[in-house]
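REVIEWER CHECKLIST
Item 1: Sequence provided? yes
Item 2: Single chain? yes
Item 3: Sequence as submitted:
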Amino acid sequence: MSMSIVSHTFSSFSSSITTSTNTTNQIISYLQLSKARPRKSFSIICSNSLNYIPNHIQDPNHIRILDTTLRDGEQAPGASMTAKQKLDIAHQLAKLGVDIIEAGFPASNKADLETVKLIAREVGNATANDDGHIPVISGLARCNMNDVDKAWEAVKYAKFPRIHIFIATSDIHMKYKLKMSKEEVVEKARTMVAHARSLGCNDIQFSPEDAGRSDREFLYEVLGEAVKAGATTLCIPDTVGYNWPREFGQLIADIKANTCGVENVIISTHCHNDLGLATANTLEVQDK
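Item 4: Structure as written out by the authors:
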């Protein structure tokens, strides 16, 4: 199974935690078990140099890097950037050989739409390295017609355009944020991925927001319907930094074992660092 991972600027912090003896013993036991587990080796390459295919990586031991500094990274306090700063960073990411640059959230405001469009035109068509690397340029979209249309309007100028569509799948998000039933979420995911395809986009990343706290059977269903509708990458996010490494690794293994059509797409992860485990969780899934 081909893999992709997400990177962006994480904040780090230390804290003092008071726990009971039982809890402490459980944590120590968990860490001891995790430390002893063997790991397979893997390499990181620029996938475009091997003729980029949205839903397939030729060598299964290689992974793709998606950098979302220009989108998710900008949500950090004090990290807002001008259009020129974003363009400069995008050029540097391309020089580093980053496979996919998530350039922004085009539907959020006109300035971001124009910036993503600028990055798509300039960075998404220029050879950044001697090996001919040109990065994929991605734009984020919620599961609604306007967002998907704006994302395509912005990224379509790139040689390798991608739309990243997301919708929440955890019970708490569906009930209190979306105010939607499971059936409505499945239908929305299916129709918006299909709509992105109808626009001419053949590289669609689908994310079930808060996947780590979602009901497993429902998660398999949503992901399977997204694949049927045309998704080429399934991005599994630990949205609130909730999962521990073995827990997140098992989630990926379960998705691979139970999602219809998963063998035909890329599995991607997007881990947050609330508990300081984003890197550990990301590396954990490479064994799955």
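Item 5: Key structural point noted by reviewer: The chain has nine helices and nine strands.
Item 6: Recommendation: ____
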